[in-house]
Amino acid sequence: MRRLVSIVFLVAVCGAAVVLAGAKDDKGGVRTYKIIFDNAFGLTNGGDFRVGGVNAGATTNFEATDDSPPKAEITAEITEPGFGDFRKDASCTIKPQSLIGEYYVDCQPGVSGEKIADKGTIPLERNTSTIPADLVNNILRTPYRERLRLIIAELGTGLAGRPEDLQEVLKRAHPGLRETSKTLQILGDQNKVIEDFIVDSDTVVKQLERRKQDLTRFISQAGETAEVTASRREQLA
Question: What is the pLDDT of residue 23?
């Protein structure tokens, strides 16, 4: 009997160790992700990597992809526990950290039911980059101003017959456009709900118009009730 108890105890201890080890792998330790951007302007090796605006690790490696034109593949290591649970709809943005040209990567982990495995990749179409303010200011100076004029002059030729590519570039360059598209898509999917809301609102307004005297009386009496309650708050306390 004593031997049986010892065996059961040993099995329980081993099971607990396995569970704890699994929990540590899920919530602790280092997780690595590869993030694809059009470029890695302003990022540095060892720079901040944030999840939802909170420091969670660092950017540790930069490579060029084999695409044409090549893209920037950034490796990010998450060292803080609880931040490494990235989903298939995760997205990342390069943001300015200071006025001296320092930048960092900030990611939203996503809400999809499907996870991204450790050492997985967040693709280019889910990521955006902030246009640096110093580059915007540079286009006002010579010779950058003349160069910008040449670029704009050739832009029409380069994008002739490629409206989809231009649309995709604009969405990635300005996250607000991407979010606006998502909002319009949601509104489009909910057009029946919006239509019902407008119809019901019109019905409510008509009823209020018909009984506006009752509504006025209710508001007046509610105000008087609030005044009486306030004057006797000590008795009510």
Answer: 37
What is the span of the domain harbouring residue 84? 30-130
Answer for the pair 105, 92: CB distance below 8 angstroms, yes or no: yes
Residue 192: phi and psi, rounded to 5, are -65, -40
Number of domains in the chain: 3
Do 72 and 64 touch, CB atoms closer than 8 A? yes
| Beta strands, E only, 38-161 | 48-51, 54-64, 72-78, 91-96, 103-108, 121-122, 127-129
Secondary structure (3-state) at 202: helix
What token pair was written down for 172? 């990635």
Query: pLDDT tens digits, residue range 70-109?
Result: 999 999 999 999 999 999 999 999 998 877 778 999 999 9
Burial label, 33 (beta-carbon count in 10 A; 0-12, 13-18, 19+): buried
Span 135-187, pLDDT tens digits: 777 777 878 778 878 877 777 777 777 788 777 777 666 666 667 777 888 88
Same domain, 85 and 126: yes
CA atoms of 236 and 161, how far apart (whole Å) = 75
- Among residues 113, 130, 147, which one ends one of the domains? 130
Q: What is the pTM of this model?
A: 0.56
Q: Check whether residue 204 and residue 223 sit in a common domain.
A: yes
